[in-house]
Design goal:
The chain has 352 residues and is an alpha/beta fold. The chain has helices at residues 3-27, 34-41, 45-57, 118-137, 178-186, 195-200, 259-265, 269-287, 297-301, 303-317, 337-351; strands at residues 32-33, 61-66, 76-80, 86-92, 96-103, 108-115, 146-153, 157-158, 163-164, 190-194, 209-214, 218-224, 227-229, 291-295, 327-330. The strands form 4 sheets. It has a 5-stranded mixed β-sheet with strand order 6-5-4-7-10. Strands 13-12-11-14-15 form a 5-stranded mixed β-sheet. Residues 1-12 have low confidence and may be disordered.
Length: 352
Amino acid sequence: MSQAAGANLSSLRDHNAAAVLSLVRAAGEVGVSRVELARASGLTAQAVSKIVHRLTEDGLLAEAGRGVSTGGKPRTLLTLVPQARWAVGAQLGRDTLTVLRADLAGGVAAPRRIPIELADWGPQRVLDLLAEEVGRLLAGLPRDRVLGIGVASPGPLDQRAGLLHQVTGAPAWDGLRLAEEVTARVGLPALIEKDSTAGVLGALGSPNRAFVHLDHGLGAGLVLGGAVQRGARTNAGEFGHQTLDPAGPRCRCGSKGCVEAVWAAAPTREAAARVLGEGVANLVRLLDLDEVVLGGREVVAAPDVYLRTVRDVIADRLPDPEWQRVSVSVAPAGPDAVALGAAGLVLGRLFG
């Protein structure tokens, strides 16, 4: 067998194992049988049996009793073993570093939020602190059970190259090879992502959804047709810089009337929430979304105001809201949503 053929077979096996793992995770605590896995994955019963055997030996799956009989022998159910592996998630915020670890089911353990000054401290001090926090977070855990670390950062950035580009208000970070720097300090494979895009990975949801992140800036992470959207340069999601009013206030990006600038100039929280709602309604109509998740400290500080107002604006702006139903909710992980999504980058390598 040629080396290329061997690599292709290995890739196929990994893909099939990821598909099985993903189906078991989706089944949750209820569990799923081998027969159901074969049916849902399109794999043969023999292939599923081999994959399940290997994943069970690796400690990732476990048998969890038997299902209800449908006339024959009750089928053995399989469930994920959440704490068989871990992923670290970190968010480099403008004034806060958030670090946590996530299990295979997306459960959060030991979250910590530490005050920082991203712009003033610069990369050396912030990343040294990150390394200290990761060491504390993983103390006592076998490193072979830690899959890697995902880091969410303000943009612009090149997600594929692991490189930051002219981070707004933080010139010392421009050109930093963030993924390499983190790997060198913590000794784990590192992936980076824009904070808003990471947020959309923080929880399972609709295949056509947005995570709107309202913090010091305003961004959106997008999933369309079940795939995360990053754009040509992996810098999609500059939601806050769509123009609402060409004659509006000057934005820090240099343009006038951006959603972010109009929001910041709003006289009351209710007025600010309505500005956000207008921007979200534009997004919903443009992309035909059916789910919007709101996150970030401004939303966490007043979830009821933002939920009510954004829902009302969307309903007002859609021509047929009964047909174009849109779910609007607050991120269940609250202030940890983006860091959890960063850990989800790493978990995504396992689940495909």
